[in-house]
Design goal:
Order of helices and strands: HHHHHHHEE
Shape: elongated
Structural class: mainly alpha
Helix content: 40-55%
Strand content: under 5%
Largest sheet: 2 strands, antiparallel
Bound molecules: zinc ion
Distance between the termini: 53 Å
Mean pLDDT: 93
Radius of gyration: 17 Å
Number of domains: 2
Oligomer: single chain
Number of strands: 2
Number of helices: 7
């Protein structure tokens, strides 16, 4: 990678780090070495990068609040994802997460301690969506339901109960 590309990727990485995206994910997309990114995390946050594993898709759908968060996030992501690429686009993920955070703050259901939904969760979610593990299905009430053939999800519509 030349110096210019490295600088541009470092600026992108800094934004993802501010959103607490995991170093391994940032490394995969920016092609910056993990060691370099770890140093960047310390410089920007004053802390070591968090270890911890990624959430499983099943855990994403553990309660009504998190399912609501997932439906909202997929809807926002799809609005930004005009090309409908096969891979998750990190730039879109980051923009969508910013938008999600603003909307979640205004929502009684989502602005709640039982509803943590991090950008890393969002990354797992959109991968599951792109792999067709989960799908959005329109409900007659006008909202969307989350459906899956691969994992157990409560497929009732959270808005009207159908
Ligand atoms: Zn409904």
């Amino acid at each position: 990678m030349n110096k210019l590309a490295q600088s541009l990727n470092t600026i992108k990485a800094a934004r993802y780090i501010e959103q607490s995206l995991k170093v391994q994910i940032i490394a995969r997309y920016t092609e910056l070495p993990e060691k370099y990114l770890r140093t960047l995390v310390k410089e920007l946050t004053g802390r070591a990068p968090s270890s911890g594993r990624l959430i499983t898709s099943q855990r994403l759908f553990r309660n009504k609040r998190t399912i609501t968060a997932c439906i909202l996030f997929v809807s926002i992501y799809l609005r930004f994802d005009e090309q409908q690429t096969k891979e998750v686009d990190l730039e879109i993920l980051s923009n969508a997460y910013e938008q999600f955070t603003k909307q979640a703050l205004l929502s009684e259901t989502l602005n709640h301690q039982q509803c943590s939904f991090t950008i890393n969760d969002a990354w797992v979610l959109i991968n599951a969506y792109k792999d067709k593990v989960i799908q959005l299905s329109p409900c007659p009430c006008g909202n969307a339901k989350l459906v899956s053939q691969d994992i157990q999800v409560d497929e009732r519509c959270w808005f009207c109960g159908r």
